[in-house]
Amino acid sequence: MILYNDETCKDAAITANSVNPNYPATNLVDSRLTRLYRTVASTTAEVVFDCGSAVSVTSAVIASHNITASATVIKIQGNATDSWGSPSVSETITYDAGVMHKRFTGGSYRYWRIQIIDATNTDGYIEIGRAWIGTYYTTPGIAPTVTSSLLTATVKTRSTGGQSYGDKRHTYYKFITNFPAVTYTQKASLETMFISLDHSTPFFIYFDSEGIDLDIYYVTIDQDELRFTLLINSDYYACGINYIEEK
Questions:
Q1: Does residue 162 contact residue 79 with C-beta atoms inside 8 Å?
Q2: Structural domain total, the chain
């Protein structure tokens, strides 16, 4: 299981080749997926993240977008200077109508850029709700049983006459994962991750294990305690982490 958890470019100064003032480029790092970046009458988006100094990047995620399957360029690039003729890192991100993500060797550079060219996009502009650029964490092996629950935030009320009515709201997922055999070193890594994210920082989780068809979700940790159980007569711990989908 992969956690896109360390957003090293979050505090960067962001500029773009085209920006609708009602949908600024800074919305790309807003934790709310509904806060959008949008170009103006341009189906090319070139967004530069100036981190001030070199930061490590090994992964990128693009979510809540209008990019089409006809896009000819979807790239994450990195360079020591704001010059993109031949960047030190240039990786193609595979298209997905939902969440697009890419893990790569990466590097440590001051400037990072997302480049989109989608000339036949009928909207006439590029729109992205979240661009996440940073490093990822590979968790210890999870148990083969992952619980996925679909919940509703609708508030239901029952009248004195016996009729039900509700304030219709959104639906969302919850996930329960278990780690059945965690080494002491892995325990320390999980604790570091938990301290960094706490249970309020959204991040992306990718279920990459064979046979688990859950793909990638935008979540927060749904618990305020990370509890480890030492397995008797062994050097391993067991623990579980719950996640709740963010919008």
A1: no
A2: 2
DSSP, collapsed to helix, strand or coil, labels residue 32 as: coil
Q: Are residues 108 and 189 in the same domain?
A: no
- At which of 136, 168, 184 does a domain end? 136
Residue 193: phi, psi to the nearest 5?
A: -60, -45
**CA 218 vs CA 32, 49, 68, 186, 214: distances in Å:** 10, 21, 21, 23, 12
Reduced to 3 states, what is the DSSP secondary structure of residue 50? strand
Q: Are residues 104 and 176 in the same domain?
A: no
Residue 32 neighbours by CB distance under 10 Å: 13
Are 23 and 62 in the same domain?
Answer: yes
Q: Which residue do the tokens 């995620």 mark? A: 61
Domain, as residue range, for 132:
2-136
Please answer whether residues 208 and 215 qualify as being in contact, where contact means their C-beta atoms are separated by less than 8 angstroms: no
CB 55 within 8 A of CB 110: yes
Predicted structure pTM score? 0.93
Identity of the amino acid at 32: R
Among 25-29, 114-118, 124-128, 165-169, the minimum mean pLDDT is found in: 165-169
